[in-house]
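Morning F.,

Quick status update on the modeling queue. The single chain you submitted on Monday has been processed. Sequence for confirmation:
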Amino acid sequence: MAQHSVRLHSAGYSVHRKPFRSLEKGVPSYLLVRLQVKGSCQATINGKLLEVEAGDLIVSKPGESYQLFIDADPERESADYYFFCDGEWVSHWLERCGFPDKALIEMSDDTLFLWKRLIEEKRNLHEDNSELVEHLLKALCLTLERAVRQQTANANRSEKFLPYRIKRYIEQHATDQLALGEIAERFGVSVSTAVHLFKRTFAQSMIRYAVDVRLSIAAERILHTDLPLEEISDACGFHSYPYFCRAFRSRYQLPPQPISDALSRTVTPTGARPREHLRVGGLGDSTGSTRIRRAVVEL
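Structure tokens below.
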């Protein structure tokens, strides 16, 4: 076996909608890593009972006994990503990083993307992809190590940095349907804590900030595309066109229709709109409405 080799025995995504209990099959000789992404469950490692919630990473090392208990039903499902592996590289990695049995981590898009790619490649039986699987597994392990270290380093500073992490998440997912409960669960805090810390830090609510981000995206699309306003409204996360118009006017002191109408009458000899002088103030930019009006006047 080559130095620092790694073997992936299994990787997958599980959803449980009824009670489940793993079978005892002796003490495994491989590493088990499991990330709870929805619902809750219980697990034991060497007889120690762990309460597992969304965002909790469970690490059962070679030679440790492990059992999983899930009390789920169709209305209260449990979901998780997992993998089993071993090898010399895995042994060196575990010795170096010293993982706890359970750690709360951020379920970042990067981590979940690597996990999904690993699962896809593990299921690919028609290509020699062993090298790709090995590097994906190593990348995932190192990404999880970083997530645990960041969580540990920020444990005493979580209240200070949590609002900025929530703000970044809202910016990344502004056009999706956002729910306060889902955002709070993602970052491992209660809704009241998330709402309080965000408003204390940025002097506005999480929902108001999401609306402002959506309006900024919509304004840019009005100025830089030929899409109908109704389509822009829906694509930016506003599923009520009248509400979009009211919110746009409140934010920029100008309804969206006159801007769109003015732009539709402005065409260069090549058929393109002269966009280089059109700018919309970014989120929080008090000159945004002035710039929009100036853009329309210049047209």
